[in-house]
Amino acid sequence: MMKYTGVAFIILLLFLSCNKDNEALIPDVPVNFKAPLTDPRLSSLNSIGGAVAITGYGVAGIIIYRRPDNAYVAFDRCSSVNPEKKCAVSIDDPSLTVTDGCSGSKFSLYDGTPVKAPAKHSLKQYQVIVTSFEISVVN
What pTM was estimated for this model as a whole? Predict the structure, then answer.
């Protein structure tokens, strides 16, 4: 009986350690971006559908997008496909999607969901706080 228990335990360990789906393992890093709404880097956000990429925050930078419902969303630029490579997604034109140049995956800027394989998981999303004068992206 002990022999079978040991074999079952080894099989269970192998099953749990073989995570081929390494998506969604984007590291948690502190994000605290703040800028006045008049910041020239954010000029694309003056209109609905505008998006900007900001470097120096998150794992591979952040993207802020102004949705058609006038809400702002922010995502880490690190693709959820092979996040250990830290491949930064790029804003497409028109700015409705972003593309992972390493895998060819596409993600919706509306909510970060994948719209083209091989991605299976959404981009990491951050909280956006907008006041009359400032926009903040935090986690």
Answer: 0.82
